[in-house]
Model the fold of this input.
Amino acid sequence: MLLEVRDLRVVFRRRGLPDSVAVDGVDFDVPAGQVVGLVGESGSGRSATAMAVMRQLPRRGVEVTGRVLLDGVDLLTLSEAEMRARRGRDLSMVLHNPRSALNPVIPLGPQLTGALRRHGGMAKAPARRAAVELLDRVGLADPRRGLDAYPHQLTGSARSRALIAVAAAGRPRLLVADEPTTALDVTTQAQILQLLREVVRETGAALLMTTPDLGVVAGTCETVNVLYSGRIVERAQRHRLFGTPRHPYTHGLLGAIPRLDGPPAAALGTIHGTGRDGLPWAGACAFAPRCPRALPRCGEVSPAVDTSGGRLLRCHNPVPASAE
Ligand SMILES: Nc1ncnc2c1ncn2[C@@H]1O[C@H](COP(=O)(O)OP(=O)(O)OP(=O)(O)O)[C@@H](O)[C@H]1O
Ligand SMILES: [Mg+2]
Done:
């Protein structure tokens, strides 16, 4: 197994305020070369999980526990210097916000060749050739000119493409993308997803992708983890998850998939409230106050994990599989 995340917890400690548990005991795997999705609405812990895997959370005020095993090595135990050496080479992040991820005062070329030389150990001229090839591969119209362009001279779509090129430059075995398509228009979104799939296929990298949108995972991810309030409430292979979703929250997310031919659906159109209305997992199902299928015990007993039938389910009263 390429990546094994075990009992991951991320707690934000804030002076004078109660601790905020962003990730509350998460387990999942990413097999080599596969695309794995982490789906949940705002505040569910997607970014905290992705940043914890990359070891990019600040040290102060954040407690990260559990294990993040990359090829059996627990990244959480590495020194900052060891971790820095691995970022870009073994694992790499496709950043959420292209503006902040690319250095605005350096042309794209040096940023790309820098990554290639650092992580690929390339000399200057081959790195430049490889950079042109990468920009070509990610579909920049004029890759040679792209090298001289500053990030602000690129369109939003080109910037997203360039970012994927930067992340893929060192040929890492794991790419982590936190909401790679949010804020892009539908056409660009489809192109970026296509590009990510191609990069995964061509480089053999695995991809861990977070998104609030089950529609985005539908065509991209082989395995889907549904995250609610810091815990995984359902996980299955894509076809099983979409064919017979069992968790009421997954049903809610499915009801909120925006249609390409109409106005975007309101988030969680079929489920009321927000993640902040939840109960603590320790003594309840956090989703119970919003759940259309809640039973009295959902507010009293934390649901155990059931891994029968080729899926993971954390629910006292799941939707029957035959109801589809
Ligand atoms: N710096 C912080 N201090 C305190 N709490 C935080 C901090 N960052 C995140 N949290 C809390 O942790 C939880 C998970 O945050 P996270 O950033 O992982 O959300 P998310 O799933 O990525 O959603 P979104 O991207 O929409 O914010 C949220 O409830 C959030 O309020
Ligand atoms: Mg986020």
Notes: The radius of gyration is 20 Å.
